[in-house]
Design goal:
With 271 residues, the protein is α+β, with helices and mostly antiparallel strands. It is built from 10 helices and 11 strands. The chain has 2 domains: 145 residues, Jelly Rolls (Sandwich), CATH 2.60.120; 109 residues, Homeodomain-like (Arc Repressor Mutant, subunit A, Orthogonal Bundle), CATH 1.10.10. Helix 2 packs antiparallel against helix 3. The chain starts with 11 loop residues before the first strand and ends with a helix.
Length: 271
């Protein structure tokens, strides 16, 4: 399974992400975002917002979203919680049948429980490891955000357009040797039309998009596992270790090994 992008076996993943640059993607889980430090631009469905320390956002299931950290005095660090719908309790119908017109909640409009519960959720997931406690914390967060979100029925949005089909297919196959021609064939469109969709809808080209998906998957593995960099390169879909290293450094301005050292130091400082 491929965590972070689409369906995966874990009921809940909670982790810190640093300097996140993540192209448009979607998955069947609900995603909660809490900004620890720095500045990040978040796009959810058709709304984009610049979030700062203490701000919060929620991504309902099967909703396109992307991230772009911004340069500021403090490095950008966010706390992400990606949770299965079986953990949403009585809010299941709300998060599967509706979506928020404004999914962003600035710090000044939040109940104090939200930030507290997000931080405790990360601790419990990896220290206490009691899923019942995690569920209680998630329900506390939902009980504070659902009443203040302006919700509308899902039928009011177009769920299955070509953009969603592109994102869904790439999410499932980015670890393979996927080409624009193969993607166009699967979606039954010309590769020239597909290139235009990438340019106009996703503001990028196919190669950049799939490389960013692969890089951010690799980034997640670097931050959350002890896998070798060779394994991470292969698991992420890169054709060679050399291509992985070059592409990683072009985007993050550090080699994968340098990035791992920095992530390790940041985690030590936090603990």
């Amino acid at each position: 399974m491929t965590p972070y992008y689409e369906n995966y076996e874990d009921d809940l993943r909670v982790f810190y992400a640093d300097d996140l640059q993540f192209p448009a993607h979607l998955h069947s889980q609900m995603e909660l975002i809490y900004v620890i430090t720095g500045i990040i631009e978040v796009t959810i469905f058709n709304k984009t917002k610049t979030l700062v320390e203490g701000d919060f956002a929620v991504v309902f299931p099967n909703t396109l979203h992307s991230y772009a950290s911004k340069t500021s005095e403090k490095p950008c660090r966010i706390l992400l919680a990606i949770c299965g719908l079986n953990l949403t309790g009585d809010y299941f119908k709300k998060v599967t049948s509706y979506y928020p017109l404004n999914p962003f909640i600035p710090s000044e409009k939040q109940h104090a429980n939200i930030g507290f519960a997000m931080l405790e959720l990360e601790k419990e997931r990896y220290e206490g490891q009691d899923l019942n406690v995690c569920r209680a914390l998630l329900l506390l967060i939902l009980s504070r955000i659902i009443p203040i979100l302006d919700l509308t029925k899902n039928q009011d949005i177009k769920d299955y357009d070509l953009t969603h089909m592109i994102v869904s297919y790439v999410s499932e196959h980015f670890q393979e040797a996927l080409t624009l021609t193969e993607l166009a064939k699967h979606l039954n469109v010309s590769k020239f039309y597909l290139s235009r969709v990438f340019s106009t809808k996703l503001n990028t080209n196919f190669n950049t998009y799939i490389n960013n998906i692969r890089l951010n998957y690799a980034l997640t593995l670097i931050q959350s596992t002890s896998y070798s960099l060779t394994r991470i390169s292969n698991d992420s879909g890169f054709e060679s270790q050399r291509t992985f290293n070059r592409t990683f450094k072009d985007i993050f301005h550090l080699s994968p090994s340098e990035y791992r050292k920095r992530a390790t130091m940041l985690n030590k400082d936090r603990n």
